[in-house]
Design a protein that fits this description.
With 275 residues, the protein is α/β, with parallel strands linked by helices. The strands form three sheets. Strands 5-6-2-7-1-8-9-12 form an eight-stranded mixed β-sheet, with helices on both faces. Strands 3-4 form a two-stranded antiparallel sheet. Strand 10 and strand 11 form a beta hairpin. Helix 3 packs parallel to helix 4.
Length: 275
């Protein structure tokens, strides 16, 4: 059967009755899969993915990140491993992930390129196929929680991830601007249409705290996250401030060093899936 192009208008298959899930490599072990999504780019999905994987890892769980943003990966640089390469297993068509200093397993397109700045000029179905191969052809070792850093939007890759991987829950990332409301609702509606559990919402760039008086300054105006959460009966799991220490840590490839209490509720929600 031909590879699905996700162009339903040109297809005669009855997809509602088909199971699109692909099998994990027999040598892999992944207990729970959490997708970090948003309807648009630039809201901080990769930051939230990196920080949550690091925090849950510090709590004693083994974590991994599958970087599904094939054409614009940023996970390797956040962890300071952008020069690393995925290694092939001898005599097998499989890859070992790159492992960070604290033991987080990572797989990203940049680990397969000769140079990190080489562009990936592929069409949607090929990109979606690469994401599935990150699931099937990588040896993930004893992972409690895998975080999938999704590309923006509701196109080929999010559809492939939702259909092909056993997603246990998603976290929707937002920012305070009114424009983002409609975009977030698109992501939430897509998850609901595909029966993917939504764990909650995370608002990034929520405020800046004055270093002198401690006042919280809402740079982008009043937040809409509570109204969005109420309309979908979802919890707000975190409000992430704009902080210099966060920018410095990510730019230095040292996101694992960050200590952030504002993600405690999100981490607890995720960890409860195994408890």
């Amino acid at each position: 059967m031909a590879e699905c192009t996700h162009d339903c208008s040109s297809c005669s298959q009855d997809c509602e009755k088909r199971d699109f899930h692909v099998d994990l490599n027999p040598k892999s072990s992944v207990k729970k899969v959490i997708a970090i999504v948003s309807g648009k780019g630039g809201v901080g999905k990769s930051l939230v993915t990196s920080m949550l994987a690091s925090k849950v890892n510090k709590h004693g769980f083994k974590t991994a990140i599958l970087d599904a943003d094939i054409t614009g990966p940023s996970i390797p640089e956040s962890f300071g491993v952008d020069e690393e390469k995925a290694t092939a297993l001898e005599n097998e068509e499989a890859l070992n992930p790159v492992v960070t200093d604290s033991g987080i397993q990572l797989m990203s397109m940049n680990f397969l390129l000769q140079n990190a700045t080489d562009p990936v000029i592929w069409r949607g179905p090929v990109i979606a196929g690469a994401v599935k191969q990150f699931w099937t052809d990588v040896i993930w070792k004893d992972v409690d929680f895998m975080f999938v850093d999704m590309p923006p939007g509701t196109g080929d890759v999010p559809l492939t991830v939702f259909q092909s991987l056993p997603i246990d829950g998603i976290i929707v990332v937002s920012s305070p601007q009114q424009l983002v409301r409609v975009i977030v609702e698109k992501a939430v509606n897509m998850a609901n249409l595909m029966n993917i559990p939504i764990l909650g919402l995370v608002e990034n760039m929520s405020y800046v705290k004055c270093p002198d008086c401690g006042k919280e300054i809402t740079v982008f105006g009043k937040s809409n996250i509570d109204k969005i959460a109420e309309s979908f009966n979802l919890p707000v799991l975190a409000r992430i401030p704009m902080e210099e220490k966060t920018c410095q840590a990510v730019d230095a490839g040292d996101v694992e060093s960050l200590e952030c209490d504002y993600l405690n509720a999100a981490a607890q929600k995720i960890e409860s899936l195994l408890k």
